[in-house]
Amino acid sequence: MPRVLAVALRRGHHFSKTPALAIRLLTSLGVEGDGHSGALVQHRYDRRRDPTKPNLRQVHLIAAELLDELRGKGFEIAPGDLGENVTTTGLDLPALPAGTRLRLGEHATIELTGLRAPCVLMDRFQNGLKAATLDKAADGTPVLKAGVMAVVLADGDVRPGDTIAVMLPAEPHRAMVAV
Prior knowledge:
This protein is an alpha+beta fold. Helix content is 14%, strand content 32%. It starts with a strand and ends in a 12-residue tail after the last strand.
């Protein structure tokens, strides 16, 4: 069964987040006290382009399996280091369709909005990290592995060890794209 391995947040806009014992998700806002929380776009680059857009990046999730892969390539990576709020285990996040809902713990519910596109800040954190989170599909299209983004549909506290219930959207499923 998929589970929450770790949770993290950080006030202000920083690349990495600080591991926590719990985080509180707030409907239509994101992680309480986190620098990316808000109904409107909070990502610095996107906010400069159009600050009136909805925030589709309220919660950032990364699979622990990606962190393991990166450590196998020589990177020193721990939960929260790549800016994620929730580190999962047992769930292939990028393979889920757009609109998938995840219930984290008993009450918190999020909806996946898209993939996180690797950015230059990853290389500033550790050289070569951006390329390590990119792959190519058999047809040559890029595969983004830097996590997924979500919006909060229902309030709730999320802790390490919480179960994750997966609710797929109605078919036809749409593959996630970068947001």
